[in-house]
Design brief:
mainly alpha; hpI Integrase, Chain A; three-stranded antiparallel beta sheet; about 5% strand; DNA_brk_join_enz; Type 1 fimbriae regulatory protein, FimB/FimE family; Integrase_catalytic; Integrase-like_cat_sf
Length: about 150
């Protein structure tokens, strides 16, 4: 009999085809300790060689349906509210992981549905609007927290 994780992985690979996304899901579901290691324990190394001009690279974006699958896995993870919110904000606002991690409660204005994003790497810091489902996810996450940390 197959485990739920194996069944989910088969569905996941049919819809996303992304090894890095699978590793990400394993990490956030508590199935893997280090996202830099593949499921078989070896270090993950990039096989692509850099191009002379970075603008010539093909940009890979997740489609709406692929993002729904990824968010579905986040909801089944060990910390569903946190992981769902992080993935949603990274996707909607184009955040780097380091930018998402640096967000504080004071950067989010729930009354005006706005979020202040401090961009890294010489980017311009900007204020973004927050949509309804994202605002509900933020409120749900804040309500589930037992501390008052930033």
């Amino acid at each position: 009999m197959e485990s739920i994780l194996e069944v989910d992985f088969k569905l996941f690979t049919k819809s996303v085809f992304c090894k890095e996304c699978y590793i990400f899901v394993l990490y956030f579901s508590g199935q893997m300790d280090n996202p830099k290691k593949s499921p078989n324990g070896r270090n993950v190394k990039s096989t692509e060689k850099g191009t002379a001009n970075s603008h010539e690279r093909r940009k890979d974006f997740l489609s709406e349906s692929e993002m729904k699958v990824l968010l579905g896995f986040a909801k089944k993870s060990r910390y569903p509210k946190r992981n769902y919110l992080l993935l949603l904000m990274i996707y909607r606002h184009g955040l780097r992981v380091s930018e998402a991690i640096q967000l504080k409660r004071t950067d989010i204005n729930i009354k005006e549905s706005r979020i202040w994003v401090s961009r890294l790497k010489n980017g311009l810091s900007v204020e973004h609007p927050i949509s309804g489902d994202e605002l509900r996810a933020i409120k749900g996450y804040f309500a589930s927290r037992k501390d008052n940390l930033p």
